[in-house]
Automatic annotation (TrEMBL):
PANTHER family: F-BOX DOMAIN-CONTAINING PROTEIN, OS02G0202900 PROTEIN. The lineage of its organism: Eukaryota, Viridiplantae, Streptophyta, Embryophyta, Tracheophyta. The keyword Protein transport does not apply. This is F-box/kelch-repeat protein. It comes from Acorus calamus (Sweet flag). Residues 1-22 are annotated as: Disordered. InterPro entries: F-box-like_dom_sf, F-box_dom, Kelch-typ_b-propeller, Kelch_1, Kelch_FKB95.
């Protein structure tokens, strides 16, 4: 993977600063801690203070400090696809903001016409794995660093894949499926920054001849949950003797699933339910009857974010993206209860007939 060069956090004066310190009268270590508490929304303005501040706000140590002081923010990246021209564009939004929802476009990816890529994130980094370019499966990997707003190429996979499932377990990226049962390796693993992809030994390579994932793969207790629209499967990548599958009952009936606090949430029609991975049963989330969502993401603090495209008939062939923040808690009787705490439509006008929101990730900044 091509490394992104970044400047170290400043500890010395620059030509545009009259002082040696980031904040006059404070050691840089203390100043960095203070700056780390400033919400991400204001970072573009802070970067204009000086070259030292600009370098600091893009450095790894700064984001490490933000994490240490619990100031990191979960931002949502949405992939909006214009299907009739096969064009994929990623957007970023802050689901915790009290302002109206606002989708800001990322720089176009190096391969914007590649569709059906698998996606995962680690910290501030988005990884796009494979996909279909003009109907041909790809093995390319593209990496987006949200700190510097830049794409780069990652290590290519050994197998070309489209509609694969991917997830992160213990800092390692696992990808499987999206190819025929005979293609080797059927599953691969990558430890970012430590080398190339390696094959994962799988006792049963696939539950179908040509397995394609439908929806996001989720991780609970080190196990990866995914499905193909017919059945749900639990994938144990660390099982001794080789990774294996286990069928999850009822998975195919639910859409827009997300994992939070050991439960997997999904919508069944107008109702939300939660899958208890330990008890292996679905539980109803009371008090939350709403329209089905095409995206459901966990953003921390016991909150989920639901996203869907809303058709606006008054505008004819335009639509908007609706974003809702959902909180779920357990009452005294152990009953799950949910409520929508914030709702907003984005000002981004979309084509009513030719756009979809097929993918998303969250990044920490």
């Amino acid at each position: 993977m091509r490394a992104i060069r970044e400047s170290p956090p400043p500890s010395m004066s620059t030509s545009d600063e009259p002082t040696k310190h980031l904040l006059p009268g404070l050691p840089d270590e203390v100043a960095i801690t203070c700056i780390a508490h400033v919400p991400r929304l204001f970072h573009p303005n802070l970067s204009l203070v000086s070259r030292s501040w600009h370098s600091l706000l893009r450095s790894n140590p700064f984001f490490t400090v933000r994490s240490q002081v619990n100031a990191s923010q979960r931002l949502l990246l949405l992939n909006i696809v214009t299907t009739h021209i096969s064009f994929s564009q990623w957007y970023i939004t802050d689901p915790s903001s009290t302002r109206p929802a606002n989708l800001r476009p990322l720089p176009p990816s190096p391969s914007p016409h590649t569709l059906c890529s698998a996606s995962v994130s680690i910290g501030p980094t988005l990884y796009l794995l494979g996909g279909s370019l003009h109907g041909v499966a790809q093995n390319a990997v593209w990496v987006f660093d949200a700190r510097v707003n830049r794409w780069s190429a990652g290590p290519t996979m050994a197998t070309s894949r489209t509609c694969a499932a991917a997830a992160v377990v213990d800092g390692k990226i696992y990808v499987f499926g999206g190819c025929t049962k005979e293609e080797k390796p059927w599953a691969e693993v990558l430890e970012p920054g430590a080398g190339d992809w390696a094959a994962v030994v799988v006792t049963d390579p696939a539950p179908a001849v040509e397995w394609r994932a439908r929806g996001k793969a989720l991780v609970v207790d080190g196990l990866i949950y995914s499905g193909d629209g017919i059945q749900g499967l639990c994938f144990d990548p660390a099982r001794e003797g080789g990774a294996s599958w286990e069928v999850v009952q009822g998975w195919h009936k639910f859409c827009a699933k997300a994992a939070m606090d050991g439960l997997i949430y999904g919508f069944f029609g107008r109702w939300m339910k939660a899958y208890d991975v330990r008890g292996k049963k679905w539980r109803v989330v009371m008090g939350l009857e709403c329209m089905p969502w095409v995206v459901l993401a966990e953003v921390g603090g016991g909150r989920l974010v639901g996203v869907r495209k809303v058709e606006e008939r008054r505008r004819g062939k335009e639509a908007e993206i609706a974003v809702a923040v959902i909180e779920v808690e357990v009452d005294d009787r152990g009953v799950l209860r949910g409520k929508i705490t914030r709702w907003a439509d984005t000002p981004l006008a979309l084509s009513r007939w030719s756009t979809s929101v097929p993918d998303f990730v969250t990044v920490e900044l």
